[in-house]
Design the sequence.
């Protein structure tokens, strides 16, 4: 628990649950409430300390005997796409991204359901209802927004939920049309957000946790230069790194 001159900030530890990323491991989190008049400032501080947001809660892993989840952020001013990333940008050059308020719509949910059933059918999110989806999008005490990515035919093909920070953007969650997997829309959405941050003079895009041992999460180290949070300090991640 920490104190400010206004009110105390309480932190709690969750009960152990099976890790969703690595087999035969248990996950625990430290969580705190973000609601209240100081939510924006608190969220900024916690993001720089490696926390993530879900609804009105900020959380960080505190797993016994495991430090596989490493906070990672892209250094925007120095980012240059590699050959593969340039190919992805060219392949999706006709796609437009639009900032919209954080309000869940039936169109978004239909795409979200298709994505979950095709990519994560065994996960908890696959059973989410429309109301659950709306809560994930709309329950935010801070400045959050959606990016809707649309084809030339105005078809919704990808969505990103983003939190605005004082020093950048935090990519909270993205999903895309599973029939267009060969377009690498997840990577395209990240690079689109990088360019949005660059245009606003913001130095970082926060990608959450990099997990070198997880195929689902190891891709984040491909966006270079990047920094990881280790022992309380943000340090450069070598381009060839495979572990923290």
Sequence:
């Amino acid at each position: 628990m920490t104190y400010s001159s206004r009110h105390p900030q309480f932190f709690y530890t969750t009960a152990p649950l099976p890790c969703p990323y690595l087999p035969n491991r248990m996950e625990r989190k430290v969580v705190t409430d973000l609601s209240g008049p100081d939510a924006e400032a608190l969220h900024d501080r916690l993001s720089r300390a490696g926390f993530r947001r879900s609804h009105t809660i900020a959380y960080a892993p505190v797993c016994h005997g495991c430090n596989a989840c490493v906070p990672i952020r892209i250094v925007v001013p120095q980012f240059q796409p590699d050959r593969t990333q340039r190919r992805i940008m060219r392949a999706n050059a006709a796609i437009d991204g639009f900032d919209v308020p954080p309000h869940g719509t039936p169109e978004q949910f239909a795409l979200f359901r298709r994505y979950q059933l095709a990519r994560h059918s065994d996960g908890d999110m696959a059973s989410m209802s429309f109301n659950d989806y709306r809560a994930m999008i709309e329950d935010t005490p801070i400045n959050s927004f959606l990016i809707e990515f649309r084809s030339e035919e105005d078809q919704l093909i990808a969505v990103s939920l983003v939190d605005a920070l004082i020093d950048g953007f935090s990519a909270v969650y993205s999903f895309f049309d599973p029939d267009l997997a060969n377009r690498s829309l997840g990577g395209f959405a990240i690079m689109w957000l990088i360019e949005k941050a660059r245009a606003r003079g913001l130095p970082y895009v926060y990608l959450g946790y990099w997990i070198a041992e997880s195929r689902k999460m190891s891709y984040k180290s491909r966006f270079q230069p990047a920094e990881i949070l280790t022992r309380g300090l943000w340090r450069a991640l070598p381009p060839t790194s495979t572990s923290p």
Summary: Residues 1-5 have pLDDT under 50 and may be disordered. Residues 102 and 145 are 5 Å apart (CA to CA). Residues 185-199 form the longest helix (15 residues).
